[in-house]
What does this fold into?
Amino acid sequence: MPSPAHPTLRSPGEPVSEAGATSRSEGRPYAERPALGGRPTAAVLRVACSGEGFARARVFTRDTLRGWSLDHRGDDAVLVITELISNAVTHAVPSAAAGAPEIRLGLALGPGALTLTVSDPGDNAPVFNPFNPSDGSALREHGRGLCIVDALAEEWGWTPRPPAGKTVWATLSTRSLT
It folds into this structure.
């Protein structure tokens, strides 16, 4: 059973066994268990609520996708995780219980799909405000992150994480863009 300090992933956004998972904290491998073909099928990173934490999350995502021969999904995946982590830092962390809030980024490779997850301590549901051309919402400064996720992902959603917290997930196709 995974401990809160060392979570694992299941698509979309639910826990699984640690088999086939890689976890990293501060850029160092936690565990790596090869799946079929000798490469891990999941990776996890604790994300610090800082500019450095965001940068590490982007590098971690690109490096992991490169290792899975999914470089062609790197730009979209980095944009999606940046939006999801930004939402977690902005909306979930301020409402979290005292102590250092924990945000975790997860990547899981499945047949034909890449699942990106961000787990945070907040219980509040993500708020999706689609653009409405008649009200000028496309020009608003904040609140467009989930619109970007919605545009890039095959599907996305969220799952509560009892006793507290949630995981927001998005899936991207692994097909080549050409």
